[in-house]
Model the fold of this input.
Amino acid sequence: MDCREAQALIVPFIEGKLNDEQNEKFIEHIEGCSDCYDELEVYYIVMVGVKQLDEDEHILVDFKGDLKKYIASKKEAIARKHSRRTRRKLGGITALILLACVAGFVSYNVYNHPDLTARYIQRIASGINVDISAASGRTRSFITRQTADYFVNSSFDMPLRRIQTAGEEGTDNE
Done:
């Protein structure tokens, strides 16, 4: 922002009519340009003084101190807005990472442990009173598997991979 643009924004700045982006650029300029800051100070004194005269108030005012406080409040509002925006972005990124981790975990378990997944789906379905069984009474599953790949021990219903040794066909080792 150059001096001509900054001087055109002095009155709207004092009246509080600038948006956050304009306020930020304006404040950045006046903090680096003493001529524009002096011009702002003069306008501020005149506008606030005339307003007091119109309202028949005769209060001793520290115009320069009030202007510095006004600028500081605008800077603080801009900083709060940037802080909120940053927190929202970080929150969104965190949510996406968490969602990706959960999706990866579920995907891994669905494809590497089909029996567990089918059992949990059945438990969830019964917990929410949804019947996912076929007409024959067997549970339908979206997981395809060969029954010969797994066996279930009646006392321990965790799916275990069948281990066969060279001379022991059909024997299950635990």
Q: What stands out?
A: Helices lie at 3-8, 10-15, 20-32, 34-54, 63-112, 114-127. The beta strands are 150-153, 156-161. The first strand starts at residue 150 and ends at 153.
